[in-house]
Each structure stands twice: as C-alpha cells, then as structure tokens.
Amino acid sequence: MPSPAETRPGLHAAIIMDGNGRWATARGMPRFAGHRRGVEAIRATAEACPDLGIGTLTLYAFSSDNWQRPAEEVGALMRLLRSYLRNETARLARTGTRLSVVGRRDRLPGGIPEAIAAAEAATAAGTRLHLRIAVDYSARDAIIAAAARLADPETSREAFGRMVAGEMHGSPVDVDLLIRTGGEKRLSDFLLWEAAYAELHFTDRMWPDFGQADLAEAVAEFARRDRRYGGLNPPKVATAA
Alpha-carbon dihedral of residues 229, 158, 164, 152, nearest 10 degrees? Predict the structure, then answer.
C-alpha cells in the first residue's frame, strides 16, 4: 500500500495547538511550562511533515483574542516567540524549511516584528516544508481586511482567497486537513476561509504530548475520507473476477 507521501503530496495541514496550559496544570506546573514544552512539539511535528506528504503546515500560536489573557502569560508567550525565532531560524534554514508568520505585527512587542522579518528572509529559500505560524491572528479580521482591499467586483474566489491568506505567496491556500488537539471541537476563528472544505480531526491529546505518531494517524484518517466538494464521485464499476 502506498504511503501518504506517495498518494497525497503537498498537503496543507493546519493545527490548533490546544492544551498547553491544562497539560502543565495537571502536572502541578505553571502554565508557561506547558507552552515551553509545546515548542518541542512544534519542532517534532514540523520535522515529521515532509515524510507524511505535508508541504505546508500552519500552526495557531496566538489568536487576536489571546491578548485578553493575563499580562504575565501574554508576556511569557511573547518571550517564547522571540526565543523560538532566535534559536530555531538556523535549523529551519538548514533543513529546507521556509518560515512565514501570519497575522498582525503592529501590536507585537518591540523587536519581534524585526526578528520575524529576519527569520523569514533567512529561510526564504526553503522548499521542503512551508511552516506558517499564526500570531495575533483572526480569520474574521483577515477576511474583513481582504474585503476592504477589494476593488474589482469580478474578483474570483481564488484571487480573493489569496488576498485573505496574504502571506502565502504562491503556496496552496486551501487547508486539506485541520487538526485540533486538547479535546475541544471548535475552529476558534482560525483559517475560516481557507478551511471551508478541510477535513477536521479532533484529538484529546494535549499539544505538548502530540507527536509524529499522532500526526501520522491524522494523515492516515484523512486519506480514508471521501472528499466530494459538494458533488458526487463517479460510481465504482464492478468488474468480473
């Protein structure tokens, strides 16, 4: 039987990385410890993607609504983002991974927008995997912003979708597989346009514990699903033995 990489090259997978805080609390640790452990899960998941046929991986790291969290936790998350950019950029470039950050940058603390731009420039030549991290991101805000830029009423769905996605620069816009960890079953304002026909996969596994086997299971389940995009697949014709 062919592997997922042979049958579904170039998948766009998106993950809502949920459960960091609950993972830490259950172990008597501060919530930030869960976020720090979650960075390790990002590394392991990204490394597993190419062999599973995933060409683009979009991760929901910090939503626009997350600014409502306690200032101490928000500050810790911003420090973690800065640390990730500083420590991971060289490895991403070495492994052929292109990094993009999607979402607003004007509200990020000083130095982070510049660090993002530097990391994106340093990894721009990567072709093995396009790793997209959503920070200060809201799908509804992205759609509103694209609509505000729309000048031609004859704009196609595809062209408008690229306006919504903005930073993808030629990568596939539509999400094939959307995964949410941590047991919740909602989209939380993540890639609402791009995930219109995505296959959804929900797991109780907390993000810090999510690994290559969990991703492989999600991709295998995706491969078994029948995607019709509102139409009907042609009937299978029985053949004589």
Answer: -130
- Dump pLDDT digits (tens) for 172-218: 579 999 999 999 999 999 999 999 999 999 999 999 999 999 999 99
Cβ neighbours around 198 below 10 Å, total: 20
Separation CA 121–CA 197 (nearest Å): 31
C-beta atoms surrounding 142 within 10 Å = 24
pLDDT higher at 162 or 43: 43
The per-residue DSSP string of 111-133 comes to THHHHHHHHHHHTTT--SEEEEE
Residues designated as active site: 18, 66
Q: Which residues are annotated as a binding site for substrate?
A: 19-23, 31, 35, 63-65, 67, 69, 180, 186-188
Residues in the chain: 241
